[in-house]
């Protein structure tokens, strides 16, 4: 069993190397996006990123979490391409890194970033609806104030009682 600090360092290095391979290695690029071999722009079709890397305590297995942004077909093709090139990736990592044994690579689809962006979109929609509702409520209250003759902070004068407007005068002491 390896030192936990070493496991983290190996995971960090593997993530760096895999990210570099996705950017520079033509074999891996064509596996992720077969259309790139035909001249298609790989940045416009789909975007593949390494979101996380988990290394087992014995440094034998690496789980690589991959996020693919694009349509469903693009996701399936990219993940299938990565899985088919797992042995190639393992051999390339062995050449690039100084490890006694190169760990087995397992690619796993990570939908957390996509799920997070969907949640943020829903929250933005709710915020917009609340802002619209607040504006409508504010307008309705203003019309109610005008209709019923209440003083308004929007141009009318406030002559209402507020607790902080009370001033206390000292009471004179009486002699007995």
TrEMBL record:
Domain of life: Eukaryota
NCBIfam families, per database record: rbfA
Gene3D superfamilies: 3.30.300.20
Name the record gives this protein: Ribosome-binding factor A
Coiled-coil stretches: none
InterPro entries: KH_dom-like_a/b, RbfA, RbfA_dom_sf, Ribosome-bd_factorA_CS
UniProt cross-references to Pfam families, sorted A to Z: RBFA
Native species: Forsythia ovata
Ranges annotated as spanning the membrane: none
PROSITE patterns associated with the record: RBFA
